[in-house]
Amino acid sequence: MKTKSLIFYALISSIFLFSLVSIWKILVTLQGIELKNFNFLIIITLGIAISLLNLLLGEKLNYLIKSTFFALIFVFVDGYLVQEMPIWYNIGIFGILIFFSLKINKYNQKYLASEHSSQIVVFDFLTLFGIVLFSFVILFPFYMMLITSFKTQAALLINPLDFSINFNQDFTELFKSYFVIFDTYKFGRYILISTFVSVGTVIVTLVFAIPAAYAVARLNFFGKNFLSTSILIIYMFPAIVLVIPLYTVFSQLGLRNSVGGLLIVYTATTLPVAIYMLQGYFKSIPKELEEAAIMDKLNWFGIIIKIILPLSIPAISSVALYVFMIAWNEFLFSLMFLDNPNSFTLSRAIQYLSGDAETPRQYLMAGSVVVTIPVLLIFVYFEKYLVSGLTAGSVKG
Amino acid sequence: MSDTLSKIEKRTAYILILPAVFLVFSIILFPIFANVWISFKEVGLKDIRIPEPRAKKIVKSIKDNPDQLKVIYKLRNSSLILEIRDVKFQDKLPKNIKPINLDERCRVKSNKIYCEFGNWEAKYRENFQILLKSSDGKKLNKKELKTIKPKLTGKSDNILLNTNFTLKNFKKVFFQNEFFDLLSTTFYYTFFGTIGSIVFGILTAQLVNQKFFGRTFMRSVLLFPYVGPVVALAYTWELLLDPYSGTLNNLLINFQVIQEPLNLLGQKYLTINFFGFDLKLRLALTTVIIFEIWRYFPLAFLFILARLQAVPKELYEAAEVDGAGPLQKFINITLPQITAVISILFMIRFIWNFNKFEDIFLLTGGASGTRTLPINVYEQGFTISDIGMGSAVSIVIVALLLIFMFVYFKLIGKRADEN
Questions:
Q1: Which ipTM score applies to this complex?
Q2: Which CATH number is B177-385's, of 3.40.50.2020, 2.30.180.10, 1.10.8.60, 1.10.3720.10?
């Protein structure tokens, strides 16, 4: 056994344990329980002690007995340090310790003597640490958004750390923020507008993009190479440099505050990437199928409808979902073009809501939940299609 | 035969691509050129309304004289700046009504009044009156008169279409707009945002590329910030970071990490004492960059993961036989395999971060040292209401973007040659 490996093992495992326990403590604090200290030194010492004991005991004890033993020691000491905690807090700590002990169970004296063992230990724990930390950092804002929408203004002011939900209250009380944004702030209307704009953008984009992509993929014409390279360069130009001229022209044509105007702009901004993604897929379809169709005297319209479309359902759905998400999440153009509350999209409505300093934050968060849930549901459900869309589209955002 | 076929093919191709090309041209390329035009003009937000002659019609009955009515037209030029030339007026009268003592600018022809008002200067206003009399002695119908709307036409200059050009906007952009401050903030934001998202992308891709329980779930979760709507996420972060009622500050104070709440989005500098040196950190800018990294590292993650999964397993196995540790494997196998992806990612993220508007706008609105060039476009155009200036800043952005793309393609070309 190398000393270096031993030190690495003991230190890193205990830091990992400390971070697990700390995240649990933060979550507990957010349930309104008073907890003032992470007890860094004590927990690190305990962690080192447990990991060294683990090496000493080795395989003399059954691993389940060993884990339970470690967990019990830790819960006892921790319970002694932070007193008067509810039983579920200790159960959580117990669970964490069982998990931790099982993780360190694979290390024994022989393992630490092998080559590169210190590096392997570091990498193993960094992986675990990364998984826990990244999940926490990413999910926490979403969690906060959801919980805040169920709280009341008073409760948030009294204790901003109390994120517990009182399930004993009335259904209408619990969902009050949602009732308010739908009744007072007409969010139902905004959902309809957002859906209309997004679905409309998807349909119009596909109608324009499929023929164009087919031409780029299959037909020979003058300027084809120029067109296919310029598609991507055009796509790199940001919305912010288009805003002023479009605003000016749309004002003079009376297209501002119209959902139609927004639809045109969204379609134009998503077209290049839609064409790019589709033409790549169309190229992969065997040419022989079309040659047979030409023999049957189908024109290009017939070829697209009867041969290309049925074969490229996966690519088309991934483009459709990707375009839908861009249109649904879009903010800049809706900020510029819409200033009449009757034609707001969801994003613009939430921004408008926040412009009023008096608006309680739980309404804002309820609105945010309403705009976020559909995209996340679609994303989780169609992940396979969307991921390929994201990688191919790759640049928007 | 083949010649006609290729002609047909060409024609079909043009028919198929024309709608898309037309739309993209009018909504994306035309505005970029229009920016050049507007940036050489002095145009304010209020100037872009085309001036119109307007008339509000008021019908009044006259005391002691029931068969006469007075019609007042409140005439005005809608524009505060531009004149309207050759204003022509037209209004219809019901059949039994005749005007009396008609203004000399007007004449009547088959139940219609035509007037020529000549030129109206900016802000022009006039109350124009007509006395009407029933021609057959019947009572006059006020309502019928009111429902008929007068028509006005006139010629005016569209301030956007005249050929008065000036270099004023560009002078202002470079010399009166704290241009170098803007530029350095933009680069700081872009550079660190890009590097950060790529570093975290590598880390997370490396994580998810290993086998563990809940790996697919983890992959979905990692993409949440990227697919969520920016408005919702920005406001959630704002709430999270609020100095008084925000969760983060309260947590940090609760666990005694800090004594005083930090205004993470509203404070320009934070002075940190570092071994006796006072370091000044751009606090709000750093927070915005962290949000940026949080939101966009998933893209880097996705790209790098796709690349990592394509690396042949044999490479790692061979390295293991040779006695390489995890660190050596990462440096000697993984990194060389992903450099190509990273350089593409670097360009994409660099350009997009450079153009990023929504994130900063929603979090700080460009205050406390987070004013980047895109934010400045919005501020100039819509807060200060100077469209010309906004366009000039847009042109600067486009020019810089073209330089980046040029440099990038040069570098890529060079590397392709070397290989």
A1: 0.89
A2: 1.10.3720.10
